[in-house]
Specification:
alpha/beta, six-stranded mixed beta sheet, Metallo-beta-lactamase, Chain A, five-stranded mixed beta sheet, 40% helix
């Protein structure tokens, strides 16, 4: 058994290196230097598109997408960044676009850049909104995430407090109307992290999909991820038929693109790994049989993440 886990541990080390390798360039911190840009989706609805690279000192761990919605009473922010410094960058972009304060923060998940900026906005009086499932995972992973980020962000992590929604939503689907704007928060199934959700604006067909979707780059199956339920979540997401999607990572897309870059890949991993796991064939055989996947080689980080994803999926599915 020890022999079978040698490959995935090594592969996981490469993955962690990719996502925690610090940049030495430094420089003045600004939304532009962190690689953040705003894209208008509809009247009063904006996406913030971040880098698809790993976490670095320069991008302040903001290698993800976010969003915000302008209302008469203030701004709704979708996800708060990986630190107080990252949250301040989002606050700057919100103010540039709307001139208004962030009044509400909705967390779509529990990976660091989804919620570790909560404390910054809470200190300014914003209400933090999350489902109970999401808040439970955040509480469990908070200390480890802070420890992992310190070697990368160093002093740019100063002042970061892992603030969790004080009154999380108990149901798996909830309709909320902050500032008079209707949002639907939906838990579909555990995905990249347990308790990941999607946020929909039913009046426009726009969806903020959080870490359910990776577009133009390879998704990562982490120890927190469940590829089987993630695929189930994706299939449920597809049935919601969003018109325009802000994925957790990558460019704004349609459902067709989301299917190609995330749904098809999850289907390949789950369908491919399952027979090996059921027969206890060993992780080496699964990796050897499935590592050649030219249909996905165009995705950024394929060379680094694909074999590690197979390993992680095998170990999880074998243990079930």
């Amino acid at each position: 058994m020890m022999k079978r886990i040698a490959i995935p541990v090594a592969a996981l080390s490469i993955v962690l290196l990719l996502w925690t390798l610090p940049s030495r360039a430094g420089g003045v911190l600004s939304p532009e230097s962190a690689g953040l840009r705003v894209e208008r989706l509809d009247k009063g609805v904006y996406a913030v598109i971040g880098s698809t690279a790993g976490r670095t000192y320069d991008n302040v761990g903001m290698n993800a997408n976010f969003g915000f919605i302008d209302t008469p009473d203030g701004v709704i922010l979708i996800d708060s960044g990986a630190s107080a410094a990252g949250a301040e960058l989002l606050d700057t972009l919100v103010h540039r676009s709307t001139g208004k304060p962030v009044r509400w923060v909705v967390n779509t998940g529990s990976q660091d850049h989804r919620w570790l900026g909560n404390g910054y906005f809470a200190s300014k009086g914003a209400e933090i909104i999350a489902l109970q499932r999401t808040a439970t995972t955040q509480r469990r992973v908070s200390s480890q995430q802070i420890q992992s980020l310190y070697p990368v962000l160093r002093e740019r992590l100063d002042g970061t407090r892992p603030v969790i929604a004080p009154s999380p939503v108990l149901t798996d689907e909830s309709v909320i109307r902050p500032g008079g704007v209707t949002l639907i928060l939906s838990y579909l199934a555990d995905a990249h992290f347990p308790g990941d959700i999607v946020v929909r604006l039913p009046d426009t067909g726009i969806m903020f999909a959080g870490d359910h979707l990776y577009v133009g780059r390879m998704l990562g199956i982490l120890p927190e991820s469940n590829p089987v339920t993630w695929l189930d979540a994706f299939n449920k997401l597809s049935k919601l038929k969003p018109k325009r999607i802000v994925p957790g990572h990558g460019r704004i897309c349609t459902l067709r693109t989301a299917q190609r870059d995330t749904g098809d890949y999850l289907d390949f991993i789950v369908g491919g790994v399952q027979p090996f796991a059921e027969n206890l064939a060993g992780v080496e055989q699964a990796v050897s049989a499935l590592s050649h996947a030219p249909q996905f080689s165009r995705l950024e980080h394929f060379d680094t993440l694909h074999r590690a994803n197979i390993s992680s999926a095998y170990l999880q599915m074998e243990s079930q």
